[in-house]
Structures are given as structure tokens and as C-alpha cells.
Write a structure and sequence with these properties.
Zincin-like, mainly alpha, binds zinc ion
């Protein structure tokens, strides 16, 4: 088992070594300020494809190679991550660890809802330890190799610890609820679990800006100045309460520029990260905020959640259909006889993660479709095509800029950089007078 682990880690560290050769972190980023290439300047001879090509050409050969390597490496991480998960399952079941944790839990209480919850907590902690090499590689070493992380090793462990604490408050009850559904609802447990996951995720989305996000970052009102007036003006025009627009200190974790919409109903907020505020120009900030406001106005949070819950429900059905056969072939040999035994959880998770691997293109397409809508909303509301194109180029220093058609469908949860620049230039062509009129 240890041999396989070492082999996996060696395989995964190969792209990391390549990345270090491709240059240091500083050369990865584009220079600050709005970038408008000559061929992208409006005029009677404006050509969408030439303007797009001029933007795409801003990336040097080395920058493009590094960005492609990072992003394409991510495709493989999906597969290796799945295989690593199988390995964790094999350790849980093969060594009898899962069965031991179940026995310990049963010694504490004979009430199923309680001993399953206790098992859930023990499983989480053991799973976190077993997954640590993988989490360290993907979340710390690889991110540092590409100049994308600002976290020290200590701070990284601090964040992982906080994440585990949050999971320990929530997950044991989720596990307990799932097994209660399996015990009581029989053949329809997956239906109940799917509906419950919608409610639970909605609740999590609602409380996360209030209770979870502040554990990791400081959220503050925007500082006074021209950026704040421009963003607030955009918010008022799009009927978003300005109280809900904040910024946070993401630079302690990452070098990426980003913004997001979080929360639901009364807790909805638009947050922009300090890298966006510090490293980019006003037209870029307005363009990105226009995109985020699109998510807000179009209610993408709850819409994505509804679709994702359906995908999860099919996943539960998939587990329901397969789990008894897997128990008969594997579980029985190791003292796990039925699906109501919590010790079966690592097997169920392995089956579920196989489904999630297959569902990756579906999930990505659900999210990417909403992102495309927000892109168009942002272009129309912020009227900053050069700002949006420049921001898209910054993101393309760590997302492959020009994927093939199927590559984008399968692996992209956002439109590609090429698509975003092209959309911006298309908008500019049709709105030259509007773009010029906006200061
Ligand atoms: Zn978005």
C-alpha cells in the first residue's frame, strides 16, 4: 500500500518540477493597468477576430506554456484525486479501520442516530489524516510551484484545521441523516437524500457569509474613493443594496484576482478580493463587478444549487443501485454485511466519487452556462469591454486560454479566456459609440 502511495506522489510531482523550470512567479503575471492593444482600439476598421488575437498575443510563449501546464495538470488531478480516494477507501476497509471506528462508536451509544454521528466524526478525522499527502500536494506545494499561493505551511495547516472544525460541526449529522434515510425509507432513501441535500446546501449558502467565510478572511466595507463610487453606482443601477458590497483580504491566501457572490436571501453579498482592488485598473474592476452583479440579479446561486442537487440525487440513486453488489463482493470479506452498517461509508463514498467523476462535465457545464450569462450581463451593465478583456487575460495566466471545443465542455467551469476576450470584442464592435461615451 505504501508503495502505491509513493508511486502516486512521484507521478504527481512530475508536472510540479516542469513548472519550476518555466519561470518564477513574477514573470507569470501581466503588468498592472488596463491593456488595450493597437488592434483592439475602436474605429471603422475594427475587426473582432484581429482584436481578440491581439489580446491573446499579450501572453508570452513562456506564460502560455506555464498556464497550460498548470491547467492541464488540473485535468489529471481530477483523475489522480479519484484514484487517491480509492486508495483511502482501501485503507479504511482493508486494514479494518472503518470497522474499528464503528465498534468504538457503538460502545459509546447503542442509539443508531448517535453512534452513526460519532462514526461520522471519527471517519472525518481519519479521512483528513489519510488525505493529507494529497491535500498538501494539490493545495500547498503545487500552488507554490506556480506562484499562486501566499500561504506559509503553518498558515496552510491552520486553514485546513479550521476547515476540519467546520466539517466536524456539520458532517456527522449529515452522515447520521443519510443512514437514517437508508434505514427508514428503504428503496427511496436516495430521493429523500436528494431533497434534503437541496435544503441543507441552501442553508449552508445562507449562513456561510455570516458564520463560515469570516473564519478565513476579514470582510470590510469598501474604502472611500473613486473605485467605491464607481462600484456603488453600478450596484445602484442594478438595484443591489450597496450594504451588500464588501471586500476581503484574499491576498493572504492567493495571488489570484477574483470576486464572488455569496449568501442567499437576506445574507446575499458581492465580495471583491483585495488583489482585484490593488493589482488592476478601474475598468477591470467595474467589468468584474458587472459580472458578479449578473450572478446576483439572475439568481444564479439558487439556480445552480437546484441543478446541482439534482445531480447529487442521481448520484445517491447510483450508490443505491450499486452498493449491495459492492458489499457482496468486497464488504462481506471484511465484516461489512449490510448498507445500514456505518462502516460501509468509505465504500459508498468511493462509489459516489466514481459517479461524480463521470458527472464532472455535467457539473462544469451547469456552472459554465451561468458564468457565460454573467459575462454578457457584465458587459452590458459595466460597458467596459477592454476592462473585461484585460481581466480575462490576467485569469489566463493560470487557466489555459484557448482550449478545444470538447476540452472546454468537459473541463471548464468558466468560459475560456479566449471566449471572454472574444465576447468583449464582439460587444465592442456592436457598441463602439456606447463604449466611447463611458468615461
Ligand atoms: Zn462568475
Amino acid at each position: 500500500m505504501r508503495f502505491i502511495l509513493v508511486l502516486l506522489l512521484l507521478l504527481c510531482s512530475a508536472p510540479m518540477a516542469q513548472a519550476q523550470d518555466a519561470g518564477d512567479a513574477l514573470s507569470r503575471e501581466l503588468p498592472p493597468g488596463l491593456i488595450v492593444p493597437e488592434a483592439a482600439k475602436p474605429g471603422p476598421a475594427f475587426d473582432v477576430d484581429k482584436a481578440t488575437a491581439a489580446y491573446v498575443g499579450l501572453l508570452s510563449e513562456a506564460q502560455r506554456e506555464k498556464s497550460d501546464a498548470y491547467f492541464e495538470g488540473g485535468y489529471w488531478l481530477t483523475l489522480w484525486g479519484f484514484l487517491y480516494g480509492l486508495l483511502v477507501c482501501a485503507v479504511f476497509i482493508g486494514t479494518g479501520l472503518s470497522q474499528k471506528l464503528r465498534d468504538i462508536s457503538k460502545r459509546v451509544s447503542h442509539r443508531p442516530w448517535l453512534y452513526v454521528a460519532i462514526y461520522g466524526a471519527l471517519w472525518l478525522v481519519a479521512g483528513e489524516i489519510l488525505s493529507l499527502p494529497w491535500a498538501l500536494y494539490t493545495g500547498y506545494f503545487r500552488e507554490h510551484a506556480y506562484g499562486l499561493s501566499n500561504l506559509s505551511m503553518g498558515a496552510w495547516f491552520g486553514e485546513a484545521g479550521k476547515g476540519l472544525m467546520v466539517s466536524l460541526i456539520i458532517m456527522p449529522w449529515v452522515v447520521s441523516g443519510l443512514f437514517a434515510a437508508v434505514r427508514r425509507a428503504g428503496d427511496t432513501w436516495w430521493l429523500r437524500a436528494g431533497i434534503a441535500s437541496f435544503g441543507l446546501l441552501l442553508l449552508l449558502i445562507m449562513v456561510s457569509p455570516v458564520f463560515i467565510s469570516p473564519l478565513f478572511n476579514d470582510y470590510k466595507p469598501l474604502p472611500e474613493g473613486p473605485v467605491k463610487s464607481a462600484i456603488f453606482s453600478l450596484a445602484r443601477a442594478n438595484q443591489i443594496p450597496t450594504d451588500n458590497v464588501v471586500y476581503f483580504d484574499a491576498s493572504k491566501q492567493t495571488t489570484r484576482v477574483s470576486a464572488n457572490v455569496s449568501g442567499f436571501a437576506g445574507t446575499t453579498q458581492v465580495s471583491l478580493n483585495d488583489n482585484l482592488l490593488d493589482k488592476t485598473s478601474l475598468p477591470e474592476i467595474k467589468a468584474v463587478m458587472g459580472h458578479e452583479m449578473g450572478h446576483y440579479v439572475l439568481n444564479h446561486g439558487v439556480r445552480n444549487l437546484a441543478y446541482i442537487s439534482l445531480v447529487l440525487m442521481f448520484g445517491f440513486w447510483f450508490v443505491h443501485k450499486l452498493i449491495d453488489r459492492v458489499i457482496a463482493r468486497v464488504g462481506v470479506r471484511y465484516g461489512i454485511k449490510e448498507r445500514t452498517d456505518p462502516a460501509v461509508l468509505p465504500i459508498a463514498v468511493a462509489v459516489f466519487s466514481f459517479y461524480m467523476l463521470l458527472a464532472t462535465p455535467v457539473l462544469n457545464t451547469i456552472i459554465r452556462t451561468a458564468e457565460k450569462e454573467a459575462d454578457l450581463y457584465g458587459l452590458n451593465s459595466a460597458r467596459e469591454p477592454h476592462g473585461f478583456a484585460t481581466a480575462a487575460m490576467r485569469l489566463s495566466t493560470y487557466r489555459k486560454i484557448e482550449p478545444g471545443y470538447w476540452e472546454e465542455v468537459i473541463f471548464y467551469d468558466h468560459p475560456s479566456g479566449y471566449d471572454r476576450v472574444h465576447s468583449s470584442m464582439l460587444w465592442l464592435k456592436e457598441n463602439q459609440a456606447l463604449a466611447e461615451a463611458t468615461p
